[in-house]
Amino acid sequence: MADQEKTEEATQHRREQAREKGQIPKSQDLVSAVMLAVALGSLMFLGRDLVDFLGQLTRDELGTVPPLNPTDMWATNHTATAFWRLAMVMLPILAILFFAAVAINMMQSGVMFLPDKLGFDWNRVNPASGIQRMFSLTNLMKLIFGIGKVLIISIVAGVTLWFEMDTILGLSAMSTMEVARYLLDTSLWTSMKIAAALVILAILDYGYQVWKAEQDMMMTKEEVREEIKTMQGDPQIVAKRRQVARQLAMSRMANDIPTADVVVTNPTELAIALKYDPFEMSAPVVVAKGAGTVAQRIRRLALENHIPVVERKELARALYKEAEIGHPVPAERYAAVAEVLRYVYELQGKQMPTMADLEKADRERGRAA
C-alpha cells in the first residue's frame, strides 16, 4: 500500500529524536584513518627531536654512575626526572593526537549527551539481534570496505616499494646509519601514502553512512500524518478551537461595536470601530477592527446600531496596521481621527467640545487619579 511505503523525507522532529537516541551518521573508519595520518605527520615533523632525545636519554642513563649505597629516594627522583624529560618531548605529539581525535569526532556528531547509552540494553547481547546484525546491509558494506582497505594497502605499499626497488637493492653499499635512515623515511612515507588512501576510502564510507541514515529515517505518509497530529494536535480539534475563538470574537464584537462612535472603512476590505468620550478618554480607542468577512460583520453591526460608517482609505489602512483593539489610536493619527469625529459630530448635529471643556476634563481626571 502507498501509505506503508517510506517515501517521505524525515521531518525535523524525527531527526531530533534520532539524534537524542544517538542515531547519527558516523564513520569509525574515518576517525581511524585521520588519526593514523595525523600520527604519521606528527612523527615526520617532530619525530627527529624525539629520536635525538631518546638517544641522549639512553647515553645519559648508561653514563650515570649510581651512588655506592643508592636509596629509594635517589631511585625515585632519578626515575621521575627521566619520565618528566620524556613527557616534555612527547607532550606536543600527544596534544596533537588528542585535539585531532576530538575535532574529527565533533565534525561528525557534534556535542552529544546520551546518558541512556550507559544503561543495559538486552538487544546488544540478544543472540537473535546479533545474528540479524551479522547479515545486515551495514555489515555487508563493512565487509566490502574491509576488503577494499586490504587491497588498497597492498597496492599502495607494492607500488611504492616497486619504485624504490633500485635503492633497496643498493642498500648493501650503504652504511648502517644510512640504511636505518632510509628505512625509516621510506616506512614513514609509505605509511603516509597508505593513510591518505584510507582517508579517501573512509570519506566514501562516511558518505554511505549519511545515505544509510537518511534511508533509515524515511517516513511513510501515515507516519507524517501522525506526527503532525502529535505536534500540532488533531486537525478536527484545532478546527473546533478556531471556530470557538471566532465565535467568542464575534460575540465580543457584538457587545463592543454598539458603543462605538464611528466606523472607518477602506471601504469594503477593512473596518475599524472607534470610540471616544472626550470627558473620559485622553484619546480615541479602537474597540474592533477586521478585514474581509470580519470587516463586513463590523459594518453590518454598525448599520444595525445606527453608527456612522465613514470611508477613509488611507486612515483605515494605517489604523488597521498600527492600532490594537482596546488601545488608543497612535498619536500621529490624532489629526485624521479628529477630522472624522468632527464630521460625525456635524452629521449628528452635536457640538464638538471646546478646548476649555477638554482642559477641565483633564483636571478632573487628574484629581480622580
UniProtKB/TrEMBL annotation:
One of its GO terms (biological process) is protein secretion. This is Flagellar biosynthetic protein FlhB. Its main location: membrane. Belongs to the type III secretion exporter family. Residues 1-23 have a biased composition (Basic and acidic residues). InterPro entries: FlhB, T3SS_substrate_exporter, T3SS_substrate_exporter_C. The chain crosses the membrane at residues 30-47, 82-104, 143-163, 194-211. Residues 1-24 are annotated as: Disordered. The lineage of its organism: Bacteria, Pseudomonadati, Planctomycetota, Planctomycetia, Pirellulales. Keywords: Bacterial flagellum biogenesis, Bacterial flagellum protein export, Cell membrane, Cell projection, Cilium, Flagellum, Membrane, Protein transport, Transmembrane, Transmembrane helix, Transport. It is a multi-pass membrane protein. The keyword Membrane applies. Required for formation of the rod structure in the basal body of the flagellar apparatus. Together with FliI and FliH, may constitute the export apparatus of flagellin. GO terms for cellular component: plasma membrane. It is found in: Cell membrane.
